[in-house]
Design goal:
150 residues, alpha/beta, Rossmann fold, three-stranded parallel beta sheet, two-stranded parallel ribbon, 7 strands, 13% strand, globular
Length: 150
């Protein structure tokens, strides 16, 4: 999971509590350390792309999502065909389509899934997901949505 802010950190904690093996990355070293104490492993953007079948993003905006995915040593540098990226950030439809198209070129699925429920929903695991993408990729994400949402 990339970005452990107000929403991301409790979502990551719920995933860990749900038995998900989790690799995390954030500029906030304190948040990373807290998640590592809970059982997560730290990795760079590229390492997350290399080692994880599913990559979850919840970033402040679309420009940051695109930079994390496609920038130097970004997630896409480590991705291979068959993996899935889920962006739960609030990004525009145009930005979402750019991410979808960029990842499709390397055989990676992309689901745009902004969340509703705020910090309380993230803490309580009762978020609502509004997802757009290919059904097979959505289906691959359902176990994670079930842990983080209601």
């Amino acid at each position: 999971m990339i970005y452990l802010g107000i929403m991301g950190k409790p979502m990551a904690k719920n995933l860990l509590a749900g038995g998900v093996e989790l690799m995390v990355c954030d500029l906030d070293e304190t948040a990373v350390a807290e998640l590592m104490e809970a059982g997560a492993v730290q990795g760079s953007y590229q390492e997350i792309g290399e080692q994880c079948e599913v990559v979850l993003l919840i970033l402040p905006n679309g420009d940051i999502s695109k930079a994390v995915l496609f920038g130097d040593n970004g997630v896409a540098a480590g991705l291979s065909a068959g993996k899935v990226v889920c962006d739960m950030s609030s990004i525009t439809p145009v930005e979402s389509k750019e991410c979808y198209d960029g990842l499709a070129k390397i055989g990676v699925g992309f689901v745009d899934a902004p969340v509703s429920g705020g910090e309380p929903g993230a803490i309580n695991g009762t978020l609502a997901f509004m997802a757009g993408g290919d059904k097979k990729d959505f289906d691959a994400l359902m176990p994670y949505f079930d842990i983080m949402g209601s």
